[in-house]
Write a structure and sequence with these properties.
The chain is an alpha+beta fold. It is built from 26 helices and 21 strands. Strands 5-6-1-12-11-13 form a six-stranded antiparallel β-sheet, covered by helices on one side. The chain has a six-stranded antiparallel β-sheet with strand order 7-8-9-10-14-15. Strands 18-17-16-19-20 form a five-stranded parallel β-sheet, with helices on both faces. Helix 3 packs across helix 16 and helix 16 crosses helix 26. The longest helix is centred in the last third of the chain and has 23 residues. The protein is globular and about 70 Å long. The relative contact order is 0.14.
Length: about 700
């Protein structure tokens, strides 16, 4: 893991100091001086900033105008030093958007006197967290270091919301799994002035009252192409890195250089990409291989082909049905600038097969399949492109059908509704979908959230349960402002009541609502959820010296994709068509047949097969689960669900993945040793008392139920 951490104290000398040797620290509650472990100081003073972890030298840049005016950029950023200075001066005048408009994926921190500004990203892949500490405010790009700093306990209400309503921002709000540690929303910046904090948005959102301006589809797609090309080019322009010292320690009988490298868990030097056969990964691989420069392996290392890009395809031998996907990947890899590697995996790489792994900053459903991803990434390059996020930024969330009705664009509903009718095979689809979209377009945000709160209280989960509803039922289920998560049906009544109370409290804070159309609102929430999952996956499946790149989650790419007109998004096959146009604009015209074919069914099949093969270990995991100790589930209910899913019952598999992942994360968190900070006396760590549920807090929800 890599993060930055710092704080803003109330006054000079009150909570911070800068040593004569350039070191920095702060005085905690017990008079100890604390510093992050394994850190490099970027600047000191009363408002210090550190970079923690294995940052590459080119990933940390600091531009200083004077001792009190400076900017730090951590990550991949395509801005020159002069552009950073211009952005610094703009931020000094209050223009924060300039700090987020450079190509790449990065976090910018600006110091102007005692004012500190930390910008989050639009997707939520590079979040910013904060917490009160020592009279001021500490901030970081990871929540666990702040939880260690304040010795935070678990926030059981947040954990319940993660299971009951993971796609509903009102349920999660600004909380994290750690009590007292808060998150700023995507598209916002944290501004600190002498310890006092303010959260400001830097991105304009579409209004609910005014129809969105008409956008030219061709220009919008050209904007997506330009943003994607620039995102890839920025990463190709970064310095090449050889994993470790780059020296092969010597021959091993029966093993070649590639096998020795894989045994050490080291990536291949240079740049590579996923090549799953899907349009997102294929687009990035072809763009990276076709742009001028040397995107392939470093000369003199690996294959010695400096012009070729390493393309990695995963072939699951335990689950069939991937033949057409592999054929598409092979056709794409026929490009002479690609070096194609197929990684095979058997039952040992199925989801749920490996339940141990590293502790991540936050829980995520991908923990059950992290080992599966690690098999693929271990064969990848030091810099590896992935297509994560493409579906969320390019596809139309079904709720966007309501947006079209609000803008009186009914004719654009014909093709998507016809595609649903064809997939479902029912003549009733058009009427049902149109009625649901019309109902959502006439439903207020407040009514939508109140409806979800009532459903959770009454345990009404009447949406189809994961396997047999079809495309139409899945679309109808999300044609709402807010809906229950797939794991909600297995939570205790007390946990559901707590989430219901959180939803009702959010309405009192937010007033009239987000001021957005329902489709745009749901699409942004889905993107934030996916970005959080990608962040967890990056930590859980981490390979030493490897960097995963997800250009579709870059600020500029997200902005370009949001400019796409809704009428274009909702058309069947829109994502594949847009990416085909992007590649044609970049000079790639020949694509294999079946480009853009859906692959979601393969993931569901793998999850079901893995759950069936690992049912015994999952049942043992939930013999005495920490989730039950926290009051979120009953062990017997989860064990019954596991047995049912393993026997083929149509249960929501992603809900079970969420339960198992959260249980695994809690166990790893409580089993950890040490802390993110040094100090005398020794610091405690997050959750020092273990699982100690706040029955009073959860009981308040039950009181609401009784009064109702």
């Amino acid at each position: 893991m890599r993060w930055l951490v710092g704080w803003s104290s109330t006054a000079v000398g009150a909570a911070g100091r800068a040593g004569a040797d350039g070191s920095a620290g702060a005085t905690g509650y017990d008079g100890e001086t604390v510093q992050p472990v394994g850190s490099q100081l970027l600047w000191g003073g009363p408002d210090p900033l550190w970079a923690v972890g294995d940052w590459r030298p080119d990933e940390v840049r600091v531009v200083t105008v004077d001792p009190g005016t400076r900017i730090a950029v951590l990550g991949i950023c395509g801005a020159s030093d002069e552009q950073l200075r211009v952005g610094l001066f703009a931020a000094r005048g209050g223009a924060l958007r300039h700090l987020t408009a450079w190509p790449g994926s990065y976090t910018a921190v600006v110091q102007v006197g005692r004012r500190i500004t930390v910008c989050g990203d639009l997707a939520g892949a590079r979040p910013v967290f904060h917490t009160p500490w020592a009279g001021g405010t500490a901030y970081a790009t990871a929540a666990l270091p702040l939880a260690d700093l304040v010795e935070a306990n678990l926030d059981f209400g947040h954990l319940a919301a993660l299971l009951a309503a993971p796609d509903v921002p009102a349920a999660l709000d600004d909380s994290t799994p750690y009590d007292g540690v808060k998150r700023i929303p995507p598209g916002h910046a944290l501004i600190l002035r002498a310890g006092a904090r303010e959260i400001a948005g830097y991105e304009q959102v579409a209004s609910l009252a005014v129809a969105a301006p008409a956008a030219d589809p061709d220009r919008a797609v050209d904007g997506v192409r330009d943003a994607l090309v620039e995102a890839v080019r920025t990463r190709l322009a970064a310095p090449r890195h050889v994993p470790g010292d780059g020296i092969d320690p010597g021959p091993v009988p029966g093993m070649g250089p590639a096998e020795r490298r894989a045994a050490r868990g080291m990536p291949v030097p240079g740049i590579g990409a996923d090549l799953s056969g899907g349009p997102a990964s294929g687009t990035l691989a072809l763009l990276a291989a076709g742009l001028p420069g040397t995107p392939g392996t470093v000369l003199g290392h690996g294959t010695g082909a400096g012009e070729r890009l390493l393309a990695v395809t995963f072939n699951d031998l335990a689950v069939g049905g991937r033949e057409s996907e592999l054929e598409r990947a092979g056709a794409l890899a026929a490009n002479p600038r690609l070096h194609h590697v197929v990684v095979t995996g058997g039952e040992e790489s199925l989801p749920y097969a490996v339940l141990d792994g590293p502790l991540t900053d936050e829980p995520g459903s991908c923990l059950v399949s992290a080992a599966r991803h690690r098999v693929r990434l271990a064969a990848g390059s030091a810099d590896h492109f992935t297509g994560y996020g493409a579906r969320q930024v390019l596809d139309a969330h079904p709720a966007r059908l309501a947006d079209l009705l609000m803008d009186r664009k009914r004719r654009h509903l014909v093709r998507p509704v016809a595609a649903l009718a064809k997939a479902d095979g029912s003549v009733l689809v058009p009427a049902r979908v149109y009625a649901a979209a019309r109902r959502l377009s006439r439903t207020s945000y407040r009514a939508g959230v109140e409806g979800l709160a009532e459903r959770l209280l009454r345990r009404r989960f009447d949406e189809p349960a994961g396997g047999g509803g079809g495309a139409m039922e899945a679309s109808l289920a999300v044609l709402t402002w807010a809906g229950p998560g797939p794991a909600a049906r297995w939570l205790t009544g007390e946990a559901l009541a707590e989430v219901s109370v959180r939803l009702q409290a959010s309405l009192q804070r937010a007033g009239t609502g987000p001021g957005q159309r329902p489709g745009d609102f749901r699409a942004r929430a889905a993107l934030a959820r996916q970005a959080a999952e990608v962040r967890v996956l990056e930590q859980a499946a981490e390979i030493r010296f490897q960097r995963l790149h997800a250009p579709f989650l870059d600020n500029q790419v997200v902005r370009a994709c949001r400019a796409l007109p809704e009428a274009l998004r909702v058309q069947p096959g829109a994502r594949a068509a847009i990416l085909r146009t992007v590649l044609e604009g970049a000079g790639v015209s020949e694509l294999p047949s079946g480009w853009g074919a859906p692959t979601q069914a393969l993931a569901v099949s793998a999850a079901r097969t893995g759950l069936r093969a690992s049912a015994d270990s999952l049942l043992a995991l939930f013999d005495t689960p920490l989730l039950a100790e926290a009051g979120l589930v009953e062990a017997r209910v989860v064990r019954k669900a596991v047995r049912g899913a393993a026997s083929g019952e149509p249960l929501p598999l992603d809900g079970l993945a969420g339960l198992v992942s959260l249980e695994l994360w809690l166990r790893r968190l409580l089993a950890r040793r040490g802390t993110c900070w040094t100090g005398t006396p020794a610091r405690q760590r997050a959750v020092p008392a273990g699982i100690a549920p706040q029955r009073g807090a959860l009981g308040s929800a039950g009181a609401v139920v009784r009064r109702g």
